[in-house]
Write a structure and sequence with these properties.
alpha+beta; 6-stranded antiparallel barrel; 6-stranded antiparallel β-barrel
Length: about 280
């Protein structure tokens, strides 16, 4: 994936205005009614290793894109040194639509994009995943964001639950979107632990289409741009990563198992035929 290196000084200039950090709930957002945006996901990490040898707990936001897959920010999976990794770094649980499912693996997007996929231990089959968009939004488009982050910088407050706001696309870069708060307020903004939350467009029929995930931005709340990692360019990687693994070679052990299953099935069928024959003979007598 190509990159526009002009992004670096532009982002750096923005960070001089307010210190940047992994974007944390939606400040000045609205509460989400029960049963709305059920694909919205909270990823809770317990026992993340720290540089001093201790541990900490944290959480990120995300969205269900397939029964066993959640999309989120890449920086939600970092080792003690802060490096993004293709694995979970602590016990991680996905809360989605009333389900609590263990996360068993994580995969980072290519080209250092701040996007990751979290694999669930078991499928969530009663929730419609968010649709993946394959085209970028345009400047001026409005996108909705959902997230489980804070509404202030006070970590002790914990998550206030799922919140939402509407944002306007200010610029479309090679791998990022600049998005600014629109509703309910101009300073509606992503906050701590909103990282990975989905920015999506909404059709008149209610269909949600993913466009980006929360990446970084100034401290919250604030007017002006946050930075979202585009997802429309990642369709090939997502399809390849989420494709079910092949059954693998027919090893001697697997062959013996298959033979045992076939033998049992044949024996059961033969027994059923003999019983049917005996019943038919009894009727003829």
């Amino acid at each position: 994936m190509s990159r526009n290196y002009l992004v670096i000084p532009l982002v750096a200039a923005a960070l001089l205005v307010a210190p940047a950090r992994p974007a944390a709930a939606i400040a000045h957002g609205d509460h989400v009614p029960a049963g709305k945006y059920r694909f919205a996901t909270k990823l809770t990490m317990t026992g993340i290793p720290t540089t001093d040898g201790g541990t900490r707990d944290s959480w990120c936001s995300g969205a269900l894109i397939a029964p066993r897959w959640v999309i989120t920010a890449g920086h939600c999976f970092r080792d003690a040194a802060g490096k993004r990794v293709d694995r979970t770094v602590a016990r991680t649980t996905a809360s989605v639509g009333g389900h609590e499912v263990e996360v068993v693996d994580a995969f980072q997007a290519p080209d250092n994009d701040d996007v990751a996929l979290a694999e669930l231990d078991s499928p969530v089959t009663d929730i419609t995943p968010i649709r993946l968009g394959d085209t970028p939004p345009k400047v001026g488009d409005k996108l909705r964001l959902t997230g489980y982050g804070l509404t202030t910088g006070d970590e002790s407050a914990g998550s206030p639950g799922l919140r939402t706001g509407v944002f306007v696309v200010g610029q479309v870069r090679d791998s990022l979107l600049d998005v600014s708060g629109s509703r309910p307020r101009r300073d509606t903004s992503a906050c701590l632990h909103d990282s990975g939350g989905p920015y999506f467009s909404e059709a008149k029929n209610g269909t949600a289409t993913l466009r980006a995930v929360v990446s970084t931005g100034p401290g919250c709340p604030h007017p002006g741009a946050d930075f979202a990692a585009r997802t429309d360019l990642l369709g090939g990687w997502i399809a390849e990563t989420t494709r079910p693994e092949p059954a693998g070679p027919l090893t001697p052990a697997r062959l013996l198992t298959l033979l045992a299953v076939v033998t049992a099935s044949v024996a059961a069928a033969a027994l059923a035929l003999r019983r049917r024959g005996r019943r038919a003979g009894a009727r003829r007598r």
